[in-house]
């Protein structure tokens, strides 16, 4: 029992860390010498490392908002899990935790889909960076974690 | 006797008055939509009265070019606008030199009008000053500020969350009140079976009525407290 609890908590923390790294790192698209992402476009020209803010396009702002919301909801679900762990009636299910976790996974999915569809095609060998991959990895983990919370019951 | 001899051969020249600095104000950057008109304002501050020989002149340097071209000059009470350069027939003087305003109006903007406009004003004898520049940016449509949409989405979703939580607790409270008032009306009939009403509580259960209380008015808040601590 304690093992399951520990495993679920560790999974939740891993998901939170993945989301934070994916949102904050500036590597959603990496080219030969430039790395673009949600917040900055950085290029290593022959003068140094120049960064300027990412484009003001609507879809980038939507992706930013959805990633931040997914971090917030994952964090809320962690708080709800700890609260319900001590306050839930015996035999009850962790509904609040599950709802927040599933909403977080939905937001990550939407953000990743919007970025995939609308990402600029520069043609200069730009590929998706590790932050983009982390977002796609976090989505099924988050969904699985939410489903585990639905199934989990408070025992003893 | 003291005589003052005025020697005309030398001649006495009148010394010019001391000149002070003049400060010129224009904007820093101006945004405009393509095809629209824009007014570039220029004014100055000087310690002297506005003289009749006040002059304003505007020059234009396109983006990416190193050369400036003069497009407007006001002197001696007459405004001379550009009639050969890039702004011919598109430039109009809308300033008021008597009020130290040397603004010009550009009509029907195009993408080629992106560049830096420099205003230089002189108010004799105040002629020492730095010309001031304003940058013109012509857009197809006005760009959205960074972060407006982000903040709006986050705010709306969090607001909906708070609203749903408030509605949930409100519904729970109202349903519990209705259930309580229903069971109080049955309390008189089931007074002897009060011990059977002590049930383990789920979220929306009947309120916990202790068997010792007899009056319904005093036990309402007592009941609520029991309901929330047992669930």
Automatic annotation (TrEMBL), chain A:
Source taxon at top rank: Eukaryota
Transmembrane segments: 62-83, 95-118, 130-152
Keywords, comma-separated and alphabetical: Membrane, Signal, Transmembrane, Transmembrane helix
Compartments in which it is found: Membrane
UniProt keyword GTP-binding present: no
Lipid bilayer topology: Multi-pass membrane protein
InterPro entries: PMP-22/EMP/MP20-like, PMP22/EMP/MP20/Claudin, PMP22_EMP_MP20
Pfam families referenced in this protein's UniProt entry, alphabetically: PMP22_Claudin
Single GO cellular component term: plasma membrane
PROSITE patterns for the chain: PMP22_1
Coarse class of the protein's main subcellular location: membrane
Leader peptide range in chain numbering: 1-27
UniProt family annotation: Belongs to the PMP-22/EMP/MP20 family.
Stated name of the protein: Peripheral myelin protein 22a
Organism field: Sparus aurata (Gilthead sea bream)
Automatic annotation (TrEMBL), chain B:
Domain annotation Ig-like: ranges: 16-135
Keyword presence, Repressor: no
Keywords, sorted A to Z: Disulfide bond, Glycoprotein, Immunoglobulin domain, Membrane, Signal, Transmembrane, Transmembrane helix
Any one biological process term the GO annotation gives: myelination
Coiled-coil region(s): none
Region ranges (Disordered): 190-219
Name assigned to this protein: Myelin protein zero
Family: Belongs to the myelin P0 protein family.
Primary location recorded for the protein, binned into one broad class: membrane
Membrane spanning stretches: 148-171
Bilayer disposition of the protein: Single-pass type I membrane protein
């Amino acid at each position: 029992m304690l093992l399951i609890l520990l495993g679920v908590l560790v999974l939740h923390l891993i998901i939170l860390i993945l989301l934070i790294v994916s949102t904050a790192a500036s590597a959603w698209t990496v080219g030969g010498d430039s790395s673009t992402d949600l917040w900055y476009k950085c290029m290593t020209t022959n003068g140094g490392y120049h960064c300027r803010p990412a484009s003001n396009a609507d879809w980038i702002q939507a992706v930013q908002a959805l990633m931040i919301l997914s971090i917030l909801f994952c964090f809320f679900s962690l708080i709800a899990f700890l609260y319900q762990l001590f306050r839930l009636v015996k035999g009850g299910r962790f509904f609040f935790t599950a709802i927040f976790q599933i909403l977080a996974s939905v937001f990550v999915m939407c953000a990743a889909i919007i970025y995939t569809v609308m990402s600029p095609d520069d043609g200069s060998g730009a590929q998706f960076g590790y932050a983009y991959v982390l977002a796609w990895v976090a989505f099924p983990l988050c969904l699985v974690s939410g489903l585990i919370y639905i199934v989990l019951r408070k025992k003893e | 006797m003291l005589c003052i001899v005025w020697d005309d051969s030398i001649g006495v020249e009148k010394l010019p008055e001391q000149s002070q600095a003049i400060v010129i104000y224009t904007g820093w950057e101006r945004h405009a939509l393509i095809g629209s008109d824009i007014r570039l304002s220029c004014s100055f501050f000087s310690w002297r009265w506005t003289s009749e020989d006040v002059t304003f002149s505007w020059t234009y340097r396109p983006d990416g070019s190193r050369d400036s071209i003069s497009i407007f000059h006001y002197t001696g009470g007459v405004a001379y606008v550009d009639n050969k350069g890039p702004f011919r027939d598109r430039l109009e003087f809308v300033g008021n030199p008597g009020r130290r305003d040397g603004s010009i109006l550009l009509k029907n903007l195009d993408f080629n009008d992106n560049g830096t406009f420099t205003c230089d004003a002189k108010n004799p004898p105040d002629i020492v000053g730095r010309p001031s520049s304003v940058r013109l940016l012509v857009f197809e449509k006005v760009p959205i500020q960074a972060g407006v949409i982000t903040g709006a989405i986050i705010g709306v979703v969090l607001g909906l969350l708070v609203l749903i939580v408030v509605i949930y607790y409100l519904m729970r409270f109202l349903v519990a009140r209705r259930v309580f008032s229903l069971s109080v009306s049955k309390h008189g009939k089931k007074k002897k079976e009060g011990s059977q009403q002590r049930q383990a509580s789920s979220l929306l259960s009947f309120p916990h009525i202790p068997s010792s209380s007899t009056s319904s008015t005093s036990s309402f808040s007592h009941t609520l407290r029991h309901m929330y601590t047992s669930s």
